[in-house]
Structure formats: C-alpha cells, structure tokens
Design brief:
The chain is an alpha/beta fold. The chain has a single domain, classed as Glutaconate Coenzyme A-transferase, CATH 3.40.1080.10. It contains four helices and 13 strands. The strands form two sheets. Strands 4-3-2-1-5-8-10-11-12-13 form a ten-stranded mixed sheet, sandwiched between helices.
Amino acid sequence: MLDKNGIAKRIAREVKDGMYVNLGIGIPTLVANFIPEGINVVLQSENGILGMGPFPYEGEEDADLINAGKQTVTLLPGASIFDSAMSFGMIRAQKVDLTILGAMEVSENGDIANWKIPGKMVKGMGGAMDLVASAKNIIVAMQHVNKAGESKLLPACTLPLTGVRCVKKIVTELAVLDVLPEGGFRLMERAPGVSVEQIKNATKGKLIVEGIIPEMEI
C-alpha cells in the first residue's frame, strides 16, 4: 500500500507542463513536493497565491505565507499574492486546468463529498464547491477505506455532496481508478504489493477490471 506521500507522488505524474493547478487541503498539498524536474506548472491556492512552491524546510517557515489549509508554504520566482475575490475569479473563469482534492466519499458516477459530516462542527465548505463546479479536470487523492475499514468508493455518496459527476480520476493507497462517464470505477493501476482481489474487496461501488492490471510506478 501507499502512504500519503506515495499517493501524492503518483498524482504528481498527472501534472503536465504549462498547467495551472489547484491543490486542495490534505494529501493534495503534498503534490507540490513531487512535481517532476523539467515540468513547469503554476500552483494556485484559493486564499490568493499563484506560483506556490513546495513546503519550506524546518526553520525556514514564514508564518505569514500560508496556503488555504493554513500550512506554511514557499513561493517560486515570479509568484504573486492577491485577495480571495481575484482568486475565485480565476477559478470561476475556468483558468485552472487541474484541481486535486481530498474526499470523504466518491460515487461511481463521479459525485464527490468532501466538506461536511452531519453533526460535526465545520468552519465552512471553503473553495471546494467553486472548484468542482469550474475545474476542467478533477483528480481525487483519498484513502480507499475509512478507519472502520468501510469503502469510501460507493454506488452513491451518503454524505452531503460537494459536486455532481465531476471527478475524473482517483488515486488511493491501493489503486489508480478512472471514473467512467457512464458510471463505474475502471481499475487502471494497483499499488505495489496490492492484489486486484484486495481492491475489489475494498470497493463498494461498481468496479470494472479489464485485462491485466499493471503495478503503478512510483
């Protein structure tokens, strides 16, 4: 199985040269540390940063320089800082090529629930709803199962939805899966040491397995 850094490293391979990319809170923020050399991308944070770099080394943090998850970050040469109104203007105008988000649940139709568990206190949905409504492409970085061992890849989400039919790809500790337009999770890759049977047992939604499933390269 992959750890959180492994998931982020695999997703970083989906980032292409010239992209504008938004990184959501949680595992997605780690993707900034694994952008391949020679790939020129611009990372956007919805609190008002364009040109975000990887996390700072210990002792080099600037408490005034944070991402949307309130983690300290770095800036790359040419970066800019602006207000959240301009940031959301970029998002709503579809200037972001790829959005990488965490999720509590994803349905086989590509619905995503990632902002609220009923009965638990939350500060708000943040920028997630704007991102899923406007992004050209959405990849979800998530754990395949919850702490009770129950699948988070479902026929239908049970938690309040953030967006409908918007997720294109999912990377978990077990697998890489594409969400098909007609519905269903197509298994594309399996994590090192993980069997197809393990993935089947951990997936409650419709899982499509065709041919030999390769082991992912990290």
